[in-house]
Amino acid sequence: MAKFSDQSSSILDRAKSLFGKQVEAIARQEQKVVELLHGVKEKLAKLGDNPKVRKLIEPISILVRMVKAHFKGEHRVAFSTLGLIILALVYFLSPIDLIPDFLGFFGFADDLSVVMAVFAKIKDEVDSFLDWERTQL
Hints:
Elements: H1 2-27, H2 30-47, H3 51-56, H4 58-71, H5 79-93, H6 105-121, H7 123-135
């Protein structure tokens, strides 16, 4: 378990070094967040046709819903959590990362590794959000 945690921290540190300043700027401007979410939605639409990929991108959909609920004032998350979610979404969307997206599945796997590292780090808040979300139906 410690090895996974160390790997997750390493992945997040690399992503933060690439996009940390950009994430801080985006997190403070709702319009920038809206633009980010729109870009993620478009990329998910392109990837979502593949049933195997659809299952893998579910965590991204959850993170998007968390951000939307936060900015609507329906379900607040800590600013540090918001920053990590935005980091994951920026990394997912950006063609400039450790393994470029044009390399197909390997580029997607790189993006997904950052998403999953963030997802694991904020698991308690994700669980809380999903519990809240179930009460909204």
